[in-house]
Amino acid sequence: MRIDILTIFPEMFEGPFSHSIIKRAVEKGKAEIHLHNIRDYSTDKHRRVDDYQYGGGAGMVMMAEPVVNCIEALQNERDYDEIIYMAPDGELFDQPMANQLSTHQNLILLCGHYKGIDERIRQHFITREISIGNYVLSGGELAAAVITDSLIRLLPGVLNDETSALSDSYQDNLLSPPAYTRPAEFRGMKVPDILLSGHEARIKEWRHDEAVKRTKERRPGLFDNINE
Ligand code: ADE
Question: For 76, 79, 84, 138, which has the most beta carbons within 10 A of its beta carbon?
Answer without folding.
Answer: 84
